[in-house]
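Good morning,

Attaching, inline, the backbone tokens for the sequence recovery test we're adding to the shared suite. The designed sequence is right after.
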């Protein structure tokens, strides 16, 4: 297929793994990123248009200057806690930023769009595993902004024929199995890198946020999904839109492994994989943490043929460990 795939936020964690997967398939990519959080080194030489999604003229210029056939949109703020403290930041980046992109798409007649969405759009689900037909009722601004993005896609489809796939991720984790890139956030807030940092002695200890939940071991359960499997789902979504233009409409799929892993089980997996002890203490619950989030991915398996290759928690931790062991200072190493 001809045309450039524009990847907003392609220097970030999930974006960079997707850029790598696209390039391995021989696809031409252009990354749009302001490098406020992403890393140029994560691009592994992929071309970059550096600038902000909030700069309308810049975004329109990128579309005018390139033969873009589809957009993968990762650029967003993505911390629940921060979104509660500073909702304006989230609406500005995640809603206005997306709108700038969509306006430019429409102006240039681009018809294919894949959105990074999230299980946070469901809020506190009435049932587990979460299926796509459950009501979306977010409980924090982060989830709300992503839901607004999904609504914009529905309306832009009606008005302009824009086809889109929203991928609602569960907990992205792991690193490129080839060891080339991995997770590097500043500050880090995600469980698996924090547990590995505690094992390596990069931090004194991990705090487990609550062990009095109504779960088998009392700690929260999440559905961890490998970042390379997420990347693969984006490519499958694109291929489906290319294969049968006009038939995808507005689709949304969960991306999870249908397997719940508790915080204590993650700690155990890290100890087994690394052979190191993880120092931890149990602290208070973190506000806004639902006890259990597990996603059904039956729909995406059926519709797009998605088959996670790195589904089990041990493999996820192994790839993350390799990255952190070999890059103790992340991309600065
Ligand atoms: N968690 C924890 N200690 C930490 C960070 C996270 O116990 O220092 C727990 C958190 O309460 C949640 C799980 O680990 O139950 C995953 O949290 P993370 O922030 O990685 O992802 P989230 O589920 O919030 O998107």
């Amino acid at each position: 297929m001809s045309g450039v795939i524009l990847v907003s936020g392609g220097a970030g964690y999930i974006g960079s793994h997707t850029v790598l997967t696209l390039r391995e398939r021989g696809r031409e990519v252009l990354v749009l990123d302001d490098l406020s959080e992403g890393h140029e080194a994560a691009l592994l030489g992929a071309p970059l248009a550096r600038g902000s999604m909030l700069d309308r003229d810049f975004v329109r210029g990128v579309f005018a200057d390139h033969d873009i056939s589809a957009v993968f949109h990762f650029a967003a703020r993505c911390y629940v806690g921060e979104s509660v403290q500073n909702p304006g930041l989230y609406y500005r980046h995640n809603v206005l930023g997306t709108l700038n992109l969509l306006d430019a798409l429409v102006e240039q007649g681009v018809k294919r769009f894949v959105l990074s969405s999230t299980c946070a759009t469901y809020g506190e689900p009435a049932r587990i595993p979460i299926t796509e037909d459950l009501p979306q009722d977010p409980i924090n601004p982060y989830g709300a902004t992503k839901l607004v993005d999904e609504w914009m896609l529905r309306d832009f489809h009606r008005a302009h024929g824009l086809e889109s796939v929203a991928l609602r991720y569960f907990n992205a984790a792991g690193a490129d199995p080839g060891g080339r890139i991995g997770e590097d956030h500043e500050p880090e807030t995600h469980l698996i890198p924090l547990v590995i940092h505690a094992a390596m002695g990069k931090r004194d200890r991990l705090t487990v946020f609550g062990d009095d939940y109504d779960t088998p071991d009392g700690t929260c359960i999440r559905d961890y999904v490998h970042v390379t499997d997420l990347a693969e789902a984006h490519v499958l979504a694109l291929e489906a839109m290319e294969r049968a233009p006009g038939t995808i409409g507005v689709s949304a799929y969960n991306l999870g492994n249908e397997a719940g892993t508790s915080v204590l089980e993650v700690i155990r997996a890290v100890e087994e994989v690394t052979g190191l002890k993880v120092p931890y203490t149990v602290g208070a619950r973190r506000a806004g943490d639902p006890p259990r989030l597990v996603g059904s991915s039956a729909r995406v398996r059926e519709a797009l043929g998605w088959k996670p290759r790195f589904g089990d928690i041990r493999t996820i931790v192994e790839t993350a460990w390799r990255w952190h062991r070999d890059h103790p200072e992340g991309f600065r190493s």
